[in-house]
Each structure stands twice: as structure tokens, then as C-alpha cells.
């Protein structure tokens, strides 16, 4: 099963790019973030015409997450949003079961400017995610937690790390929380496959970042122990970042043995 994650940076603005990528790579499951559209504005018909069933958790102008499953795969939504902050109206998490695998699609808060309220929210959100992640591990099922984590795990995951030390994506407390999450028993799939390689998934629109390969690795796959040994392959569709009117993220994908 091929599972992909892609921060589309506006599903309607980038719809031609999304459909071209789906046709080219044909993932079995695609987790999308930053839809920037309310539920009624999700291009459901175009997604269905591309051969996918979708569930989504939209929000006007900001955020939004979706899970697309190739026709023929059953998708059962099992949750949206994270417990622990009832007044939180930001659409950042959706969860479903596909082929006996629980898939959580997430868009973690950016947290900038930091320090400040946005970083505080990010840290609370990470705590809530960690609680849900532990519940999933304790349920003893196969789980994939994927999406835009807005976390640069190590200096290896960023071009010129010295420029990022005060950024909310790279601050010590953010990285510590991410590493504590992984330490519950999760596997960082891309790093397992490529432990030493320079791999980026995000390239800013400014300063020719993509052309210079000056990026960040912030889109991650965390696998539960059930899936670690089933991981066959994975990578980043970097060329998609070079398409016209594309997102500032590149799609990331893994392949799991059935």
C-alpha cells in the first residue's frame, strides 16, 4: 500500500497540481493538509473523478485536512480533532481506518512568532497529539500518523540550521516534544529508510529556495511497531515542487507490504 502526505497550500488554488500528481503517482491513500477551504468548498466531484473517495475536516481560509482513499478501498472515519481543548476550532486532525490500518492525518500548528501565544498553542497541541498517539499504541493496532508536523527534528533536516534556532519549527522545546512523541514507540519512516541523506520536504517561495535545495524536512510519517517491518520504500516527490503554481511543500510517500 502506497501512502502519501501532501500539504497542498490551498486545495482549490492548487487543484490542477493535486490532480496531476494523483494521476502521475496513484497513491492508494493521500493525506492532505492546509486545504484552506470550508467543507462545502472541497472539490469533491473532481476528487471522485480522479478515482478517490475523500473525507475531510475543512475550515474557511485556513488549516483543513483530508484523507483520500483510492476507489475500492473502504475508508471509515474514526475521529476528527484532538481531545483536551474543547474551544479549539482549528481543523488540524482527521483519522480513519483503511485496510485495517488506522491513519491519522495532521497539520500541526506553526507556532510563530515565538515565544508567544502561537507557540504556547503549538506546545499544547503537541501534548494533545502525544496523548492520542499513546492511546493508539495502547490499542495494539497498525497506525500511521502523517502530515505536516511543522517540526524540524534535527540539524540534518534543515539547510543552514544556525538560521533557525529561534524559529518555532526548531526551538529546543518543540524538538524535545517531538522526540518524546517518537520515543513512545514510533518509527520515523523516512529517516529509517535514509538515515544519513539530506532530505527536504518544504522549500520557501522566496530566495530561490527550491532551486538551491535550501529546504526543511517537516512532513513526516510515524509508524507504529506493527508497520515498521512492513516498510518497503519511501521518498519525496521533489519534482512536484518545481511545477507551475505549486505548493511550497513536496509530497512525501511510503510503501508498506500488504
TrEMBL record:
Record keywords: Hydrolase, Magnesium, Manganese, Metal-binding
Residue ranges constituting the Endonuclease/exonuclease/phosphatase domain according to the UniProt record: 4-249
Pfam family, one: Exo_endo_phos
Cofactor note: Probably binds two magnesium or manganese ions per subunit.
SUPFAM superfamilies recorded: DNase I-like
Site (Transition state stabilizer): 150
UniProt GO MF annotations: DNA binding; double-stranded DNA 3'-5' DNA exonuclease activity; endonuclease activity; metal ion binding
Site residues, Important for catalytic activity: 219
Residues the entry annotates as binding Mg(2+): 7, 34, 148, 150, 248-249
Site (Interaction with DNA substrate): 249
Protein family membership: Belongs to the DNA repair enzymes AP/ExoA family.
PANTHER family on file: EXODEOXYRIBONUCLEASE III
Protein name per Swiss-Prot or TrEMBL: Exodeoxyribonuclease III
Annotated source species: Salinimicrobium profundisediminis
Gene that encodes it: xth
Amino acid at each position: 500500500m502506497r501512502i502519501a502526505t501532501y500539504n497542498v497550500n490551498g486545495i482549490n488554488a492548487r487543484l490542477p497540481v493535486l490532480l496531476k500528481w494523483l494521476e502521475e503517482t496513484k497513491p492508494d491513500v493521500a493525506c492532505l493538509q492546509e486545504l484552506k477551504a470550508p467543507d462545502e468548498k472541497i472539490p469533491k466531484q473532481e476528487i471522485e473523478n480522479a478515482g478517490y473517495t475523500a473525507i475531510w475536516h475543512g475550515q474557511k481560509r485556513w488549516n483543513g485536512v483530508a484523507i483520500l482513499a483510492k476507489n475500492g478501498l473502504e475508508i471509515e472515519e474514526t475521529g476528527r480533532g484532538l481531545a483536551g481543548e474543547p474551544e479549539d476550532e482549528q481543523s488540524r486532525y482527521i483519522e480513519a481506518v483503511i485496510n485495517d490500518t488506522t491513519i491519522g492525518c495532521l497539520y500541526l500548528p506553526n507556532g510563530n512568532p515565538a515565544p508567544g501565544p502561537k507557540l504556547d498553542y503549538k506546545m499544547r497541541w503537541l501534548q494533545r497529539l502525544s496523548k492520542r498517539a499513546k492511546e493508539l499504541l495502547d490499542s495494539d493496532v497498525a497506525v500511521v500518523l502523517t502530515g505536516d508536523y511543522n517540526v524540524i527534528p534535527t540539524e540534518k533536516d534543515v539547510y543552514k540550521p544556525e538560521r533557525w534556532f529561534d524559529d518555532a519549527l526548531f526551538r529546543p522545546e518543540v524538538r524535545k516534544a517531538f522526540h518524546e512523541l517518537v520515543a513512545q514507540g514510533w518509527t520515523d519512516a523516512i529517516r529509517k529508510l535514509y538515515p544519513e541523506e539530506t532530505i527536504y520536504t518544504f522549500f520557501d517561495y522566496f530566495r530561490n529556495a527550491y532551486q538551491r535545495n535550501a529546504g526543511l524536512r517537516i512532513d513526516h510519517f510515524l509508524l507504529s511497531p506493527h508497520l515498521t517491518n512492513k516498510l518497503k520504500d519511501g521518498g519525496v516527490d521533489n519534482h512536484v515542487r518545481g511545477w507551475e503554481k505549486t505548493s511550497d511543500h513536496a509530497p512525501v510517500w511510503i510503501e508498506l507490504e500488504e
